[in-house]
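Case study B.
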Amino acid sequence: MTKVLMQGNEACVKGAIAAGMRFFAGYPITPSTEIAEGSAVELPKVGGKFIQMEDELASMAAVIGASAAGVKSMTATSGPGFSLKQENIGYASEAEIPCVIVDVQRTGPSTGMATSPSQGDVMQARWGTHGDHPIIALSPSSVEETYRLVIRAFNLSEKYMTPVIFLMDEIIGHMREGVEISNDIEVIDRKMPSEDQKENYRPYDCADGELVPALAPMGKGFYYNITGLLHGGDGFPTNDNEVTGRQVLRLMKKIEDNRADICQSESQDMDDAEIAIVCYGGTARSADEAIFQLKEKGIKVGMFRPITIWPFPEEDFLKATKNVKKILVVEHNYGQILLEVQRLAKNLPVEFLGCINGKTISPDEIIAKVEEL
Amino acid sequence: MPSKLIQKYMREEHLPHIWCPGCSHGSFMRAVAVAVDRLGLDHDKVVFVSGIGCSSRSAGYMDFNTIHTTHGRAFAFATGIKMANPELEVILFTGDGDASAIGGNHLIHACRRNIGITTLVMNNNIYGMTGGQYSPTTPTGEFGTTAPYGNIDRDFDIAELAKAAGATFTARANTYDLNQATNLIQKAIEHKGFSLVDCLSICPSYYGRKNKKGDAVKMIQWQKEHTVSVQKAQNMTAEELQDKIVCGVLCDYDYPEYTEKYQQIIDRVRKD
Ligand SMILES: Cc1ncc(C[n+]2csc(CCOP(=O)(O)OP(=O)(O)O)c2C)c(N)n1
Ligand code: SF4
Ligand SMILES: [Mg+2]
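Model:
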């Protein structure tokens, strides 16, 4: 095992390639551009391909096309580009095409502040595309975790045949830290149908008890249709409400029923904590330092950090905060995960520390807020 | 009893199709099936890609690997597919609105890259699927539900647009001469690099009705009278050509195909 100094965005590329990414399509946007640049350099070295598309709509579409042809694919962007990708993210969700979408969040709304940090896209990651749909979103808090977690993002997308949002932020994207590059990683590949399924192949009719379809890559002699219209077992559009209802329900259930496998979180110093700080991504770094200093002062405070942002790790959260008296949500926005915490915390007082002006939330601000509680 | 062509290449269980009586989208879909058959393409290696619109429903009727994508984005999906597996013969069905309005940006960049995709634009001068709104190819002065007082936009010549953007093969076909259409589509598939056939389709339900063009037979008759071959056009004056649409191969030249160029990068990088 070797430890290498690298930037968060660079770790994202390295992890993606380790996970098997062999196609990247993107369009430059700060603070995500190094992911496109890194992919352009690294992919041909492993026989993979990079393409700079004409915009983010096209990048998202190309990624889905390449994945449908059997190649693990990723795109990366930030706020404005994330908005443009939304229609096709919904397509990937409905058509069940695995892919990873990296959003290195920057301050919004609109063009906002291109080089400033934010976590303002948390709700967009959940509900950015129209209609009811499942989504998985993961958020790393260190460069090291970026490397490992992007591999998990690919694994979850392949396992559950779904788009996965890799929700980074400017802090982590541009941070430089040492990363342990290990060859001992788990890589999951999508399920393949068996050869005897070629005749009358119905990929979207899952076997009894199964929620995830086995979609054959294009070019292997399995003929079927892929569409964003609600469809039957063979992928052909239908208006039969019973069939469409069943199809969308399975889509939701394949994520909902597998929360235990998908959801990850970290609890730090929560055993005797009276105050729980809930935070994630780059913001957790400031909270980490704040907690260290607060504990020196004898204040009983701990941290609950969702690593899987969507679906929100509800069970973990309830367990971790069972004995606390107060919760403080710290996030780089006007209050987004806050809503989720308020919904779950029920009778506990929930305080909030946010930031919308492009500054970084400092440990001192968190300390002051906790002392005020 | 369905024809051999239908049995071999189409999803019988999903026919009849959704198109209105007299719509000519199906004629071009058949022409593609004939061209694929004549070329003896490996069934497993052909992928049909389409956008959204009446025209784009064609992909779903073909019994191959088919992908019906989002409105205007078929070119970008197809680019990803071709990049992922250059062995695949990627054939794209689109409409005038899908290709030149919402998809216009993707179209010109696919042309510019000269990526190996064969595009059939079923150009009926209207948004058929949404009920007859004007499109970028609705002639100036004509009507649509959103051009109730006459269209003031200038119309695109999609084949010219593609050529100017870098497509290395462009052609125009019409519904009257489906033999010619089939031959042109065949040539377009055989061509290496980005090829596009502007297929003059007819939409009697909306474009026809809104502009008092008569029924399908009348509309096809109109095409017969107003189209000339490239060869014939060469000996005609500008005046004679004024109300004519030129059909046939409009441009055809060699330029390296995109995925082959990328493969050279891979080979070079991996050798170093
Ligand atoms: C993003 C988006 N905008 C609008 C629509 C609605 N829409 C569906 S088909 C269509 C027009 C299709 O026109 P054309 O490509 O000419 O195909 P035709 O139906 O005439 O064959 C429109 C506007 C859509 N499906 N998606
Ligand atoms: S509306 Fe027009 S384009 Fe659509 S199926 Fe009917 S005739 Fe064809
Ligand atoms: Mg049209």
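The first helix of chain B runs from residue 4 to 9. The remaining cases will be described in the next quarterly update.
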